[in-house]
């Protein structure tokens, strides 16, 4: 008898530190992942698994046999070329072109389903690219659904809008339905509960901290610089100086926090928020710990580039539930294989049977 509890498999692309994968790992078996950034990959390996391959996906994709087959492919191609705060070069940019690399991999490997994540700008200024992607996925056999989700509506203490493109292969006979959020927002105060002031370190110290990843350099900017800009504002020098509000969700965290923390100041203390505080604003459990060997700027970058944990988890559960809904797929399984099952026999089909169909 087959094990009906066997988890469907996942391959992960543009994996970063694994924040998207963290939401999927309980419901899926992640068998392979790829990331270009070696520092982010160290955190992935420490928190998600040893299956990550470090390398250029364009080079890897030249030989598709190097990429395992899996039930689901998940990934968020680098977003800077679609971001209103980034390069904004669209699909013609070096990073923007990776969106089509991901498409070509899915086209060649034909997973049962896929997830593609990107910034809200893909559905706004670069809507033409989004429509082209949808049409292209339709042409290679996928039913595609697109939604912009705000992480704050899923219990993350951050207003973070991201576009999700989710496709189910046409022969599954079903369309993906996005999970619904709610209007009960979690605040910065909720997120930082139980955290004392961070341990002070030097910028290049590789220290985990008494509370893992909860350290502060008190630079970029310094407390003196912050006070000076508030007391003596000068033209163009207060641009980007923003302080979190205890009683609201955070505004969107970006990877820019790695370079200059002026936009992400603690609600009370004159400092950039710590990496642990940033992780909490992404909804990430404290069990996720970035290794001490990862440089501080790279720690901030992998958080700013990540997917909010509660959104990733909600999507993972929705995909698993919808793909395991036997009743919706029995007719499709029968027509694909000429399988002449009676109703009582069909009701015994497991998710594994469907995936093997």
TrEMBL record:
InterPro entries named among the record's database cross-references: C5-Methyltransferase (IPR050390), C5_MeTfrase (IPR001525), SAM-dependent_MTases_sf (IPR029063)
Record has Transferase as a keyword: yes
Top-level taxon of origin: Bacteria
EC number: 2.1.1.37
Keyword list, A-Z: Methyltransferase, Plasmid, Restriction system, S-adenosyl-L-methionine, Transferase
Annotated active site: 79
Any Pfam family: DNA_methylase
Biological processes annotated in GO: DNA restriction-modification system; methylation; negative regulation of gene expression via chromosomal CpG island methylation
Signal peptide region: none
Entry's Gene Ontology molecular function annotations: DNA (cytosine-5-)-methyltransferase activity; DNA binding
Keyword Methyltransferase: yes
Family: Belongs to the class I-like SAM-binding methyltransferase superfamily. C5-methyltransferase family.
PANTHER family: CYTOSINE-SPECIFIC METHYLTRANSFERASE (PTHR10629), DNA (CYTOSINE-5)-METHYLTRANSFERASE 1 (PTHR10629:SF52)
Descriptive protein name: DNA (cytosine-5-)-methyltransferase
Organism whose genome encodes this protein: Priestia megaterium
Lineage summary: Bacteria, Bacillati, Bacillota, Bacilli, Bacillales
């Amino acid at each position: 008898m087959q094990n009906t509890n066997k988890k469907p498999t996942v391959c992960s692309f543009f994996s970063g530190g694994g924040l998207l994968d963290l939401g999927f790992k309980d419901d899926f078996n992640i068998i392979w992942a790829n990331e270009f950034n070696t520092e982010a990959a160290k955190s992935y390996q420490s928190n998600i698994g040893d299956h990550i391959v470090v390398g250029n996906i364009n080079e890897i994709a030249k030989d598709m046999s190097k990429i395992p087959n899996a039930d689901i492919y998940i990934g968020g191609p680098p977003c800077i070329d679609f971001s209103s705060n980034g390069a904004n070069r669209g699909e013609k940019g070096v990073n923007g072109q990776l969106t089509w690399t991901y498409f070509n991999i899915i086209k060649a490997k034909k997973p049962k389903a896929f997830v593609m994540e990107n910034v809200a700008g893909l559905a706004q200024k670069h809507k033409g690219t989004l429509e082209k992607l949808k049409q292209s996925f339709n042409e290679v056999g996928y039913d595609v659904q697109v939604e912009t989700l705000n992480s704050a509506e899923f219990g993350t203490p951050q207003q973070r809008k991201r576009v999700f493109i989710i496709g189910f292969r046409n022969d599954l006979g079903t369309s993906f339905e996005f999970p619904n959020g709610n209007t009960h927002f979690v605040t910065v105060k909720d997120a930082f509960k139980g955290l004392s002031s961070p341990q002070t370190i030097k910028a290049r110290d590789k220290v985990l901290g008494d509370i893992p990843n909860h350290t502060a350099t008190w630079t970029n900017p310094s407390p003196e610089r912050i006070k000076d800009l508030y007391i003596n504002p000068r033209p163009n020098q207060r641009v980007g100086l923003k302080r979190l509000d205890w009683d609201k969700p955070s505004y969107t965290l970006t990877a820019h926090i790695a370079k200059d923390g002026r936009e992400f100041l603690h609600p009370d203390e004159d400092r950039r928020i710590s990496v642990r505080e940033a992780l909490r604003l992404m909804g990430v459990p404290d069990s996720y710990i970035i290794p001490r060997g990862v440089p501080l700027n790279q720690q901030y970058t992998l958080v700013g580039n990540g997917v909010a944990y509660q959104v990733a988890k909600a999507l993972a559960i929705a995909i698993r539930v919808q793909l395991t809904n036997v009743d919706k797929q029995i007719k499709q399984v029968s027509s694909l294989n000429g399988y002449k099952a009676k109703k009582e026999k069909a009701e015994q089909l497991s998710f594994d049977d469907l995936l093997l169909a």
